[in-house]
Amino acid sequence: MENNQNRFVYLDNIRNFLVYNVILLHVILMFTYPLAFYWAVIDKEGSSRIYETAVVSMTIYLMPCLLFIAALFIFPSLKRVSPLEYIKKRFLRLYVPVIVFLFCVADISYQLLLKRLNSVAPTYLETFLNSWRGFINIPGIYLTGSGTGSSFVVFGFQHTWFLTFLFFITLIVVVLSLPFKRKSSEPKKVDSRKEIILKTILFAVVLGIFYAATMVYYSMHGITPGPFLIIGKVVSFPNHQIWVLLPLFLFGLYVYKKEWLTGDDIGSWKLWGTMAFVFLALYVLLQHTGCVPAIEEMMKVAEHNRLFDNKMPRPPMSFSTQVAFLGTYLLEPLACIFLLMFFLSFAKMFFNKTNAITTFCSKHSINVYVLHLIPVLILQYTFMNVPITPIIKIILMAIIIIPACLWLSHRLVYPYPKIAIAFFVALKLAALAAGFTFYYYALLVLIFISFAGAVYESARYMVAQKASLKPV
Q: Which is it for strands 235-238 and 228-231: parallel, antiparallel or unpaired?
C-alpha cells in the first residue's frame, strides 16, 4: 500500500513485529506441556502455565493481523502489474518456499517427536517416506490429528499453512476483481474519525458474537477446535480460527477501499490501547484461571489416547469452565481487532520513518518466516538438557535465531534463490543417505555460521556508521 510519496513504513514495521513474535511463540512452545504435547521438543519440567497462557494469548492476534496487512497490499500491487504477473509473483514468493520447506525439512519435527516418544526411533529415511505416504493417502478434505500409535506420522504444512492460505485467498480476490478492473472509480466519501471508530467497534462486537456462536455449534456437534483442515492437499488453515482469519482479511480489503489509512486519524492509540488492554486482560484472566487448566486435562487424555490402545474418556467440563470458554470466544475477536487498531495507530505515530534496519527486516520478513522453524527445533533440541532456566533459554534462542535467519536470507536465499534451493535439496539428499545425526549437526553448524555472519556484519555496519558521524 502506498501514499503519494512513499510506502506506508509503519505497516512494514508492524509486520516485522508480528513475524518476530511468531518466532518467539514457537520458541516458547518448548515449555507448554501438556498444552502442546504434540510439539517435537518438550521440556516437561520447565513447562509452566504462564507460558501456556502466553502462547494462547499470542495466537489470537498474530495470523489475523498478518492477514489484514497482506490484504492492504493486494489492490495497490495490481495497479502496477497485470493479474497474471501478480499471481505468478505471489506463487514464487509464497508457494515455492512451501514446496521447498515440505521436501527439505518438514519431517525434522516428526523425527524429533518420534525420538522423544520412542525408545528406538525410526531411521530418518523411514520418517521421510512415511511423511510423504501420509501426504499421498490423505483425502481431498482432511482434518489433521487423526491416526494412532507412537509411530504414526501425520502430514501437515506446519507453519507454512499461512502462506498456502494467503496465496489462495489472494488468488480468489484477484479473480473476483477482474470484471471491475477497467471500471473508473467514483469519488469516495471519506469516513470521519467517529465513523471509523464506531464501524470498527460494531465489526468487533458482531464478529465476537458470530465466533462464539460458531464455537458453540462446534461443541454441540462434537467438532474439536484446533486441528488444521487441508483442502485439495494444497491449502491449509486452522478449523476454528478461520472464522476470525477470513473476516480480518476482508476487513483489510474494506479498510483499503475506504481509504481509512490515507486519512489523518483512525482513532487515538491511547483509545485503542486502552480497549485492547481491557479485553486482552479479561481474555488472559479467563484463559489462565478457567480454560488452560481444563485444556491441560484434555490434552493429557489426548496424549494418552494417541500413544496407547486403552482409550481414556474425555474429562467432563464443569459449567463454570464452559462459561469461561464462552467468554474467551466472545473476547477473542474484540481483543484481536482492538490490538490491530492499536498497532496501526501507535505505529503510524511513532514508527513511520524509514531506517536501514527496519527496511532490511521488511525485505526479508517472508524468508525469515519460512526459515525460522527449523532453527527453533534444532536449538530447542540442543538446549534441552542445558542446566539453565527456561526464560534464559528462550532469550538465547531468540537472540540466535532471528539474526541467523536474517543473514541466511540476506546472503543466500534472497539474492540467489535457485542456488539456495539447490543447496537445501542437496543437503536433504545427503541427510537421507547419511542419517538424521548428520542432518542435525549440519543444520546446527549452518545456524551458528549464519549467526556469526550476522554478528560480524552488524559490527562492521556499526563501525562504519560511527566513522561516518565523526567530523572531518
A: antiparallel
For 287, residues 6+ apart whose C-beta sits below 8 A from its C-beta are 53, 56, 57, 328
Residues 286 and 328: beta-carbon distance below 8 Å: yes
First to last CA, the chain: 41
> What are the cell numbers at 12?
512494514
The pLDDT of residue 258 is above 70? yes
Residue 309 φ then ψ, to 5°: -80, -30
pLDDT at residue 470 tops 90: no
What is the C-alpha separation between 58 and 61, in angstroms, rounded?
Answer: 6
Alpha helices in 138-182 (DSSP H): 161-177
- Cα-Cα-Cα-Cα torsion 280, 285, 287, 292, nearest 10 degrees, comes to 150
Question: Is 229 in a helix, a strand, or coil?
Answer: strand
Contact between 395 and 383 under an 8 Å Cβ cutoff? The reply is no
pLDDT tens-digit map of 397-446: 999 999 999 999 999 999 999 999 999 999 999 999 999 999 999 999 99
Tell me: pLDDT of 263 over 90. no
Determine the Cα angle at 282 with ends 11 and 298, to 5°: 100
pLDDT above 50 (res 150)? no
Cell of 348: 503510524
CB atoms within 10 A of CB 279: 22
pLDDT at res. 418: 96
Look over the chain and give the mean of its residue pLDDT values, rounded to a whole number. 91
Residue 472 has pLDDT above 80, yes or no: no
Q: Which of 434, 426, 374, 438 is nearest to 125 (CA)?
A: 434
Rounded to whole angstroms, the Cα distance separating 307 from 151 reads 9
Q: What is the pLDDT of residues 71-108, one digit of tens each?
A: 999 999 998 899 999 999 999 999 999 999 999 999 99
Query: DSSP string spanning 324-366?
Result: HHHHHHHHHHHHHHHHHHHHHHHHHHHS-S--HHHHHHHHTHH
Quote the cell numbers at residue 37. Answer: 504435547
Question: Which run of H or E residues covers position 231?
Answer: strand 228-231
For residue 182, what pLDDT is reported?
A: 59
Alpha carbon distance 145, 306 (integer Å): 9
Lowest mean pLDDT among 132-136, 151-155, 167-171: 151-155
> Rounded to two decimals, what is the model's pTM?
0.93
**CA separation for the pair 423, 417 (Å, rounded):** 10
Distance between CA atoms of 442 and 453, rounded to whole angstroms? 16
- Is residue 43 within 8 A of residue 390, CB to CB? The reply is yes
Q: Is there a cis peptide before residue 34, judged by omega within 30 degrees of 0?
A: yes
Distance, in Å, from the CA atom of 264 to the CA atom of 242, rounded to the nearest integer, reads 32
DSSP state of 185: P
